[in-house]
What does this fold into?
Amino acid sequence: MANTGSNQVPTADVASVASSPRPYLPGDLAMWFFILAELTVFAIFIIGFAVTRQLYPDMFQQGQTYLHPVAGGINTIALISSSCLVALSLNAIKHSRQNYAAALLGGALLTASVYLAVKSWEYNELIQQGFGLSTNTYFTLYFFITAFHFMHVILGMIILGSMAFKTTKGAYQGKSLSGFESGACYWHMVDLVWIIIFPLLYVIN
Amino acid sequence: MKPFGKMEYCWWTLIGITLFNTFLGEQFSSSALVSILVALTVMFKGLMIIDHFMELRHAHRYLRLMMRAYLIFFPSLIIVTTFL
It folds into this structure.
């Protein structure tokens, strides 16, 4: 797959990338097509949710009272922290600090697992109260959007785990960082989508 | 090893905004002002992530524009629906 020359330099730092005359592409072009496709799917869900909310404002207002904004906030903090740790890990690997980069990825996985735990707790709470996919349009959309995102988090964690394993084996030493950057960008995309979903589902009614 | 001051600053800013949004969700019933405030903070958070975490600030122009347009368009929809 086409890639920029700057990705071929293993120890290229951000400053050298910034001053590069070539347009810089973090990660692989194929991964960016995938990320943009995923963002489009989420965009359809978000528009669908916003339009349906205009059609059934009372149902949406009532449905939202059963959600926990604090749980949503904890999840947002977990994903932002995880995303930050991945960005720091990329910086560390650019400075040939393999072990530190792997440790940061481990931290990112740990904070991501907080999201999984809190979201599972939320699902359990709602199901215990008798809410499910077929309760009404609000809960159908709520479960669809959040479960779809939940699956992306799981896939992202598998990618991060693989990146951490490869980092400990020194797979990125003296080689292109394109694979690492692609995985990192995917994870940032997962974080980005949650940042839009969180206020839409939990804050605004 | 360069210190990551800028990244840490971004992280603290994002956490602060998230706590503020959570507080709004917990304490206030939604109003036009809350919706606009939240939409603007979402826009700001998203732009911070694509610029600093994804490192798109110096990336290819089209990619940067597409990502920024996404992050501006969707929060703007929240503002638009407030007035419908």
The helical segments of chain B are 5-27, 32-53, 61-82.
